[in-house]
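Data availability (excerpt). The following record was deposited with the supplementary files.
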Amino acid sequence: MSNKKSPVYDVKAVPVEKVVANDYNPNIVAPPEMKLLELSIWEDGFTMPCVCYYDKEKDLYILVDGFHRYSVLKTSKRENGLLPIVVIDKDLSNRMSSTIRHNRARGTHNIELMCHIVAELDKAGMSDQWIMKNIGMDRDELLRLKQISGLADLFANREFSIPEKESPVDAKATTVV
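Predicted structure:
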């Protein structure tokens, strides 16, 4: 983006009803921090726009970053129902990596959703190097997520449970003489 103008210079106010969440954001905000975000918005207003992709066919803005700010606005009567956004024009894989970069700079991730994102990027043909670079992972973290998602695939569509108590037969088998 060296010669391009950054999206932040083109903030738009759009009706919150025209904005929808993406289905891949693994970021989680704990309840105390969510209350703090809400207080921040009430006290300071919106100081950062949400980042969106505009879907022309659906005439909707899909969130890339800012889900929790968006959620606060949806449940409050602030800003006349207008959400400040900036628009980026990227394909899905690059939007996913943008979401992760935004999130990792300030929060924690749900491991199951991170595994899903890695699997989706892998299915989309992104190389390990691309994933590591664009999501900010090292080789070991990427390997762990791929291993976890691979284990999940092994147990998909199968009933699996760990018994709560040992049965008498199991207890005999583990008795040391």
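Summary of structural features: The first helix runs from residue 31 to 44.
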